[in-house]
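Before the break, one more example. Copy the sequence into your notebook; we will annotate it together after we see the structure.
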Amino acid sequence: MTDPGPTVPEASVKPSRLVVLAGPTAVGKGTVAADVRKRHPEVWISVSATTRPPRPGERHGVHYWFVSDAEFDTMIERGELLEWAVVHKSARYGTPRRPVEEALAQGWPALLEIDLQGARQVRDTMPGALFVFLMPPSWDELIRRLVGRGTETDEEREQRLDTARQELAARDEFDVTIVNHEVHAAAEELVALMVLDDEHPFDH
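Here is what the structure looks like once it is written out:
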């Protein structure tokens, strides 16, 4: 795989935490993370590796690291992934370990935007992280967003809806829930969780 990002520059921020954002398919995790990236350059956001092909407009190294199955196998064998999972019974997704560790070591507020399976793995390896569940305003709105995206076949859409029903049931596993009524508001609420209060460090 291409080197998963440049060395993280020295941070000049307040004490920070790792925040893990997960939620059901089509809830808008990627859109919220993109808004954070645009408005808050002080936040370091992990770029996942995936074996699925790029969607229109997606760029290698920006939205995802697009890798082959063989490359992904090598990353697993070498212990280069903090977490990985098969998503929607098809492609594999994973978080490169080294960039995350570098960002945290240098004090950056860091965000992982991953699926539920990945979040559970990170809880085992990094229990000090804050786990945030992104909820849709309603089930009907989740369906509308998924259909409106127009990137899946009917079969893929039904598969994602089945997955979403299971994922919504995992809400109680998380420390904080944010309802994604509006992207900017959800992004600001997320960023507010990343900077630690000196009096209440890692207070959930």
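Confidence is low (pLDDT under 50) at residues 5-15, 197-204. The CA atoms of residues 19 and 129 lie 6 Å apart. Try to locate both features in your own notes.
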